[in-house]
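Re: nicotinamide-adenine-dinucleotide structure - here you go.
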Amino acid sequence: MTTYKIAVIAGDGIGKEVMAEALRVMEVLQQYDADFKLQLEEFPWSSDYYLEHGEIMPKDGLDQLKKFDAILFGAIGDARVPDEVTIWELIMPIRKQFKQYVNFRPVKSLKGIGSPLKNGKDIDFVIFRENAEGEYSNSGGRMFEGQADEMAVQNTIMTRKGIENITRAAAQYAVAHGKQKVTSATKSNAVIHTLKLWDEHVKQVLAEEFPDLQLESNYIDALVAYFVERPQSFEVVVASNLFGDILSDLGSSLVGGLGLSPSANINPEKDYPSMFEPVHGSAPDIAGRGIANPIAQIWSAALMLSHLGRPDLAEKIVLAIEHVLLDGEVRTKDIGGSASTTEMGDAIIEKINAQMSL
Ligand code: NAD
Ligand code: MN
């Protein structure tokens, strides 16, 4: 029997609500496979935890997480706690310390979900967002606060290694999945030093290590338009931290919205655990009402199972999600229905049960 140790951090707001459903789904899968066992440990690290303890995770939090095979994360964010705490003292340290420099975000039309585009043909590509450096750095600061000369400086940090790593990860995925093309998001025409470096090393890695892959390099302002005009033309998109964040929210809206969009923060070397979480945040506007869509969280759990070496189980989950959406009877509010979070979880579990008894 293979036992996987999973750290579960549900976080704030709807994070808690959608996580409950993902855990139920994984519980069900274990019943059908004697060789598959998850040992879950839940960590209460959240804004409530911060307000009670004065820190969002204990000093040895990362050491505690290190021994797990993977981390399943919900969402974090609360109006009572500054983002500097929730983002910079919880999510960022995990991503950075555990060298999760790949943020993998599939943009895939699910059966039964319409498209906001006139050209409603199926979309199926993936975004590799650089996840450890770039525009999201804590280098810089504010000066002359409250004065007329008030200003802020934000330093973007890109390294040759960082660019090579994310490019290699994207290209390896492309090769492994029979893709022909990698699209790079840039803005080097604006003489931004970091993006000049980006262009050079994306190009070099592809030319030297993946000569069979085609490189398409697009300026970010044009690329967002292409996402809308010809989303079917993309296969693998590689982008810096900020560009990748923006592109993936746009990508998400092309295929049904945040309630359906999973992501993986991957440490390709596997010397630290990887972390799996929906693209969405804690959604304070709907939290506590039991109406959040749990699909993004459940699909994120599927990405985790795939990463742990069980793509067969991941596929069962995605198939079950698609069956529910195709039936069309059970839908949460964000995708045009009135089902609750739990009802959506129930419906997906029912489809998994049906697949297993075939
Ligand atoms: P959000 O993703 O929480 O919500 C954006 C919109 O999408 C809201 O209208 C929300 O109701 C809706 N939505 C999101 N997920 C949904 C779901 N599963 N089902 C149905 N509707 C859903 O983004 P926001 O409102 O900009 O941010 C809220 C908080 O979350 C902030 O504190 C922000 O910093 C944080 N945040 C955290 C993460 C993370 O944990 N990685 C990511 C993004 C935002
Ligand atoms: Mn985002």
